[in-house]
Amino acid sequence: xxxxxxxxxxxxxxxxxxxxxxxxxxxxxxxxxxxxxxxxxxxxxxxxxxxxxxxxxxxxxxxxxxxxxxxxxxxxxxxxxxxxxxxxxxxxxxxxxxxxxxxxxxxxxxxxxxxxxxxxxxxxxxxxxxxxxxxxxxxxxxxxxxxxxxxxxxxxxxxxxxxxxxxxxxxxxxxxxxxxxxxxxxxxxxxxxxxxxxxxxxxxxxxxxxxxxxxxxxx
Length: 219
What we know:
By secondary structure, the protein is mainly α. The protein has 8 helices and no strands. It has one domain (5-214): MetI-like fold (Orthogonal Bundle).
């Protein structure tokens, strides 16, 4: 069977539509993950032992189980508890956001711990509470250092988003599968899908590098 890449112009619009959903889904999930991860990461280094235990269990469970299983728990398992179905898009955002939160939490924790302890002590000596010192002094400094790993997390989540195709959400991979049923050209279609993923990840990598340089992040 010979290759036929002449089909690319006809299939590209559908694949780009799927790519748009992939980017939007990953972006929303990363925002949710950053919100969750920031609180959990701070809790992981805080002085409250109970909070450290709870956040530790969350991080260990999420990082220790596959995203696909978490997606199934939300999409197939949650409806049996709440008594109504969960839309595929909602299930994908929730599962990916919670998953991302655990990884972002470890990134935030490492970033905070990389800041000299004297910063916290100096802030508290000026009358700031622990929460105020963390918010206004420590976290802003840590944020500059966690930009590169946050970018890597976004890229990883963008690629892992292909798993949502199993719940019939028409992301880039799912669109590719649909196109294959019409064209019977799996190699050509999957090559284009792979190239689109590559272009997206390279674009994000360049954006992260630009942001890192802009904020003058130091290792």
